[in-house]
Amino acid sequence: MVHGSLFITCKLCSFNDMNKQANNQLIAITGVTKGLGRAMVDQFIEKGHTIIGCGRSQQEINHLKTIYPSHHFFVVDVSDGKDVQQWANQVIENIGTPEYLINNAAIINRPDALWNITEEEFSQLIDINIKGVANTIRAFLPAMIEKKSGMIINFSSGWGRSTSPEVVPYCTSKWAIEGLSQGLSQEVPKGIGVIALNPGIINTEMLQTCWGEGAKHYSTPEQWAKKAVPFILKLHSKDNGKSLTV
């Protein structure tokens, strides 16, 4: 009887281990050094998934490597196509093709009328918020297509579906993300999903830039991530082409 119980226990442990491994998703996230990206890292890892993260701050990337040594963090400038391609090549060759590519990295313009925003400011925002998304897709999507599965989650905004004064460059970039996502969803083969995701209103540094103290009335990135991560993990290729909100 003891031997039988031991056998059943071992079988159960083995099943649980296999189930855990089957549920372990490889998730690539841009902009992981602060805000929503940083909060998602903690939640995905807590749920047993493997993170491939990138950001521009060497100091913050080093910190993430220290606290999460079994995960993978890189210094990458998403606005630099060659830098992104080198990152993707390294990831795909040495770690694997991600099941999820979450394009989170973005910046917002200083609040002002469009005609007061300099060409340099506007260009930097477009390079990160739009070209950065295109760069990661160009780098990772071919491997997803070869694998015949994968989800691309492009972070949009309420300002990607509406507009406000003094944030015209940011609105422009997020409206572009909506169009990019829907257009790409019509190009990808079966098994691939492309989603434009509005995260909602969260008390991030970006929101504080626009709303000041008013941002404190909204959820923190950590609170948001607790509901956003399960939401993202339920997305499937059948959701391809949808514009969703957490």
UniProtKB/TrEMBL annotation:
Can you name one GO molecular function term for this protein?
A: oxidoreductase activity, acting on the CH-OH group of donors, NAD or NADP as acceptor
User: What species was this sequence derived from?
Assistant: Gloeothece citriformis (strain PCC 7424) (Cyanothece sp. (strain PCC 7424))
Tell me the CDD domains matching this sequence.
SDR_c (cd05233)
The record's Gene Ontology cellular component field reads: cytosol
- InterPro entries from the xrefs? NAD(P)-bd_dom_sf, NADPH_pterin_aldehyde_rdct, Sc_DH/Rdtase_CS, SDR_fam
What is this protein identified as?
Answer: Short-chain dehydrogenase/reductase SDR
Q: Could you say which protein family the record assigns here?
A: Belongs to the short-chain dehydrogenases/reductases (SDR) family.
